[in-house]
Amino acid sequence: MPDITIEGPDGAFSAYLAVPKKTPAPAILVAQEIFGVNQVMREVCDWLAGEGYLACCPDIFWRIEPGIQITDKSDAEWKRAFELFGLFDVDKGIGDLKVTLKALRARAECAGTAGTIGYCLGGKLAYLMATRSDSDASVGYYGVGLAELLDEAPSIAKPLLLHVAAKDQFVPQEQQAQVAATLAGNALVILHGYDAQDHAFARIGGQHYDEEAAKLANQRTLDFFKEHLVP
C-alpha cells in the first residue's frame, strides 16, 4: 500500500502502512531506527501484516528532513544517521507516534487494540510509549538511552517487553544492569537478554544480524502481541 499521510499538531507527515489480508485486525505502530522509514522498517511492517496485524511506520524525522530512507551500508550514511539522531526531538517524536497510534485506531481496518514496536532509537521510543501513551502493549529491541529515562518507569501501566543485547556497543552493561534493576519490580515488564549479541542483532542484512537470536526475539514478540492485542 502507498504511504499515507498523518495529520499532526505541527503539520502533516507520511507513514508506511501495511494491511493484513484479514481485517479488522489489531494494529501495531512501528518506531523507526535512525535510518528513517527505509526498506528494513517497511519490511518489518510487511512481516507484521503477514502475521495478521495492521502495521504502520511514521516518518518521525520529517521536521528535520522528510522522507529519509538511508541504510547502514556506508560511512556517509552512518554519519547522516547519527546527525539525524542528534537533531531529533524525542518529545515531539513521541507526540507524532501518539497521533499516529490514534489515527491507526480510527481506521476501518483496525479492530481497536493497538501496540507499539521499536528498534534502536525506536526501542527507546517504545519504552516511552509505555510510559507516556495508551499503547496497549509495547516492544523495544535494543533501545538506547533507557537508563536516562528510568524516572518514568512508575508510569508504565500496560505490558512492556524489552529485548536487550548484552554486548550492545551503544548501551554499556552498567546501564543495562541499572535498567534491569529498576524494572525488576514491575510485573508488567518482561526483559529478555541475548548474551552473545550486539546492537541490531535482529536487523536482517546488518553487520551484527544473528538469525537464531532474531528468530527467537521475533517469536517472543509475536507471542507477546498475541497475548495482549488479539481478543
Would you write up a description of this structure?
This protein is α/β, with parallel strands linked by helices. It has a single domain, classed as 3-Layer(aba) Sandwich (Rossmann fold), CATH 3.40.50.1820. The chain has six helices and eight strands, in the order βββαβααβαββαβα. The chain has an eight-stranded mixed sheet, sandwiched between helices. Strand 3, helix 1 and strand 4 form a beta-alpha-beta unit. The two termini are 26 Å apart. The model has no long low-confidence stretch (mean pLDDT 97).
Overall radius of gyration: 16 Å
Order of helices and strands: EEEHEHHEHEEHEH
How many structural domains does the protein architecture include? 1
Indicate the percent of residues in helices.
25-40%
Report the biggest beta sheet as strand number plus sense, adding barrel if it closes. 8 strands, mixed
**Mean of all residue-level pLDDT scores:** 97
Characteristics of this structure?
single chain; 231 residues; alpha/beta; eight-stranded mixed sheet; 6 helices; globular
Short description:
With 231 residues, the protein is of the alpha/beta class.
Itemize the secondary structure elements and their pairings.
Layout: E1 4-8, E2 11-18, E3 25-31, H1 39-50, E4 54-58, H2 75-87, H3 90-106, E5 110-119, H4 121-132, E6 138-141, E7 160-165, H5 173-183, E8 189-194, H6 211-229
Parallel strand pairs: 3-4, 3-5, 5-6, 6-7, 7-8
Antiparallel strand pairs: 1-2, 2-4
Helix pairs in contact: 3-4
